[in-house]
Amino acid sequence: MTKSTLNVVELFAGVGGFRLGLEKANAEIFNTVWANQWEPSRKVQHAFECYKRNFVTGIDEYSNTDISKVPESNINKWGIDVLVGGFPCQDYSVARSLNNEKGLEGKKGVLFWEIKRMIEHSHPKYVLLENVDRLLKSPSKQRGRDFAVMLATFRDLNYIVEWRVVNAAEVGGVQKRRRIFIFAYKNHLDFALKQKKFTPDKVVFKEGFFAKTFPVKKEPYKNRVNTIELPKDLVGISDTFAHEFHPAGIMIDGDVFTAHTEILNESFTPLKEILQDEAEVDESFYLTEEQIMKFAYLRGPKKIERTSAEGFKYIFAEGGMSPTDDVNGPGRTMLTSEGTTNRSTHIVEINGRKRFLTPVECERLNGFPTNWTEGMPNRMRYFCMGNALVVDLIEKMGETILKIDQEETVSFTQTALKLN
Fold first, then answer.
1. d(C-alpha 248, C-alpha 243), whole Å
2. In the chain, at which end, N or C, are there fewer CB atoms within 10 A of the end residue's CB?
3. Helices of type H across 78-189
4. Are 134 and 223 part of one and the same domain?
5. Residue 28 burial by Cβ neighbours in a 10 Å radius (0-12, 13-18, 19+)
6. Where in 204-351 does DSSP place strands (E)?
7. Is residue 153 located within the same domain as residue 281?
8. Does the annotation count 384 as an active-site position?
9. Are 108 and 250 within one domain?
10. Which CATH number is 375's domain given?
């Protein structure tokens, strides 16, 4: 039978969205044994300090160092059942070694290869990752290559992979935040064997991890489906692969089925539901007359003649957008520039006065508790929330993982996992 707890390791942890979501699903089962957050370009590690403040952990459980420096001996001892993390979209090109014997990872510092290293030395049952949805189409000159490299890497590590692009505002959230989630599971699990009995389309539309978590309509959007067979050679994928991946799909043994799914019962939470009482909002968040004029320009339509670096003249055109955000609808995608005088910044009008969202409201936009990021400068509070994921989505996925794991009968040892 399965263990009473699932040991979790959280990579690229930020302010702890994955851990918070899993603990909301079941804090007694999801047991975070180690987490890593390190921002190499910053002297003050605000996200790290926020994580430590909100989760009572010892230094052995939480790391503020370069993940590439973590020794394999440490990875082996954690007994990882669930590996989670949000990682940056980078260049996943690979090259062949000089003696032509095996593929080498691409650019140094690409963090996906650290995920691969972690899996190779721990073989978790489940891997849950998050990224921006453009991962499916990168790089622009070879569409789909990077995602194919990732899928093939999981294939070679003996995992089945499901993925789905989820818009939080379509599944009850308060923000139009589209992110790709990747769920990989060892191919000899009971759940894996069950999925192999279904046709790939049935997994994606009804029986799979994401179909159970976020149900979709029976038919693909505009009949958009595609099947792909991944080349065996990772280097060959890097050199020549170019195919279209749709927002949902499954990969089993290198065979890919991908489709454009639509949420079955779309719903959202209106922006007004997360706004603070006006008595709680400091005067500094209200726009000055100068800022009001600046935003009117930034959010208005425009056609501007510009000159390129090569001396060519062209017209830069930009459509207009509403001068304020509709509080009766979901919020737009929050970026790290939130709270600055920027076209993408949210502006709400309450009782005839325009203002920014407060850091507390931005926390709520992502499903974090009030004042989760308290203690760091407001600019960093906005920045961290612009990077964060929507906690409620992780809670729902965590609940599905629990249901899957409750039905597992496979006995796990590190040796057995390495052989499968």
1. 14
2. N
3. 112-120, 145-156
4. yes
5. exposed
6. 225-229, 248-252, 255-259, 302-307, 313-318, 347-350
7. no
8. no
9. yes
10. 3.90.120.10
- CA dist 131 and 135 (Å) reads 7
The CATH number of residue 122's host domain is: 3.40.50.150
pLDDT at 414: 44
**Catalytic, out of 50, 89, 362, 384:** 89
Q: Look up the domain containing 137 and give its range.
A: 6-267+390-419
Are 348 and 295 contacting, i.e. CB atoms less than 8 angstroms apart? Answer: no
Find, among 399, 403, 394, the residue nearest to 20 by Cα.
394
Total residue length of the chain = 420
Residues with Cβ within 8 Å of 16's Cβ and at least 6 positions away in sequence, in order, are 10, 35, 50, 51, 54, 55
Same domain for 287 and 226: no
| CA pair distance 130, 366, nearest whole angstrom | 14
Amino acid (1-letter code) at residue 61:
E
Mean pLDDT per 10-residue segment, the chain (420 residues): 80 96 96 92 92 80 88 90 89 61 54 93 97 92 93 97 98 97 97 98 98 98 97 90 96 98 97 97 97 96 90 90 96 96 96 97 98 97 97 98 93 49
Q: What is the pLDDT of residue 108?
A: 52
In sequence order, what E strands does 202-301 have? 225-229, 248-252, 255-259
Distances (CA, A) of 23 to 91, 340, 396: 32, 33, 11
C-alpha span between 145 and 245 (Å, rounded):
10
Cβ-based neighbours of 246, under 8 Å, separated by 6 or more: 136, 220, 224, 225, 226, 258, 259, 260, 261
One domain for residues 382 and 394: no
Kindly report whether the global pTM for this prediction surpasses the value 0.90: yes
Residue 1 maps to a domain = no
**Residue type at position 200:** P
The first and second tokens of residue 292, run together, are 């009001």
How far apart CA 30 and CA 19 sit, in angstroms, is 8
Whether residues 50 and 68 fall in one domain: yes
pLDDT at position 40: 87
User: What are the tokens at 153?
Assistant: 């890497």
Count of alpha carbons within 13 angstroms of residue 47, beta-carbon side:
25
- E strand or H helix that includes residue 36: strand 30-36
Residue-level pLDDT at 178: 97
Same domain, 311 and 344: yes
Tell me the C-alpha distance between 68 and 75, whole Å. Answer: 12
**Count of the separate structural domains present in the chain:** 2
Q: Pick the closest to residue 149 from 134, 160, 138 (CA basis).
A: 138
